[in-house]
Design brief:
Elements (H helix, E strand, L loop, with lengths): L7 H21 L2 H6 L9 H25 L4 H26 L3 H22 L4 H6 L1 H20 L1
Length: 157
């Protein structure tokens, strides 16, 4: 049996890893500022957030790979791929707004759009693959939670 390595098996995880590392850079360089904030009681510990993001990136990368390798190349497919790319950009942008620019209000708006892209991805993928749609569920829930958390942080500062 011969296995053919496809370029997307490397490119899609590389994009996910780059997005993760960009977010980590923006976050790590501003933890002093973050630790100075009044945080709501619903704020999870840092270790939990890091673990959650690792799970989310892994599941989302798996979903993107499955979609890319199994969906028909039609307008819906390309729109889904565009949404994945937009989502990666929004994910990094939210981290930049929140941690680097300390733009709490703008990061709330960004988190709304980010969450909407995840929920839309899950919705659009669902008719073709329930599994892929379910792989996005933790990310969708987490980004919705981020709206609440970011708004609460903004309100108590």
């Amino acid at each position: 049996m011969q296995i053919t390595i496809r370029l997307n098996w490397l490119v899609i995880p590389a994009i996910a890893l780059a997005t993760l590392l960009i977010g980590k850079h923006f976050t790590a360089s501003n933890m002093l500022w973050y630790s100075s904030l009044k945080l709501p009681i619903i704020t999870p510990p840092a270790w939990f957030m890091s673990s959650m993001w690792l799970v989310i990136y892994t599941l989302t990368t798996g979903c993107a790979l499955l979609v890319y390798n199994t969906f028909a190349r039609n307008a819906r497919f390309w729109f889904i791929m565009l949404l994945f790319a937009l989502n990666a950009g929004l994910n990094s942008y939210w981290t930049y707004l929140f941690f680097t620019q300390h733009e709490l209000t703008n990061s709330i708006w960004c988190s709304f759009v980010l969450s909407a892209t995840v929920w839309l991805l899950a919705y659009l993928i669902r008719p073709e693959s329930l599994l892929c749609s379910l792989l996005l569920l933790p990310y969708a829930i987490w980004t919705t939670y981020a709206i609440v958390l970011t708004t609460w942080i903004r309100l108590i500062q």
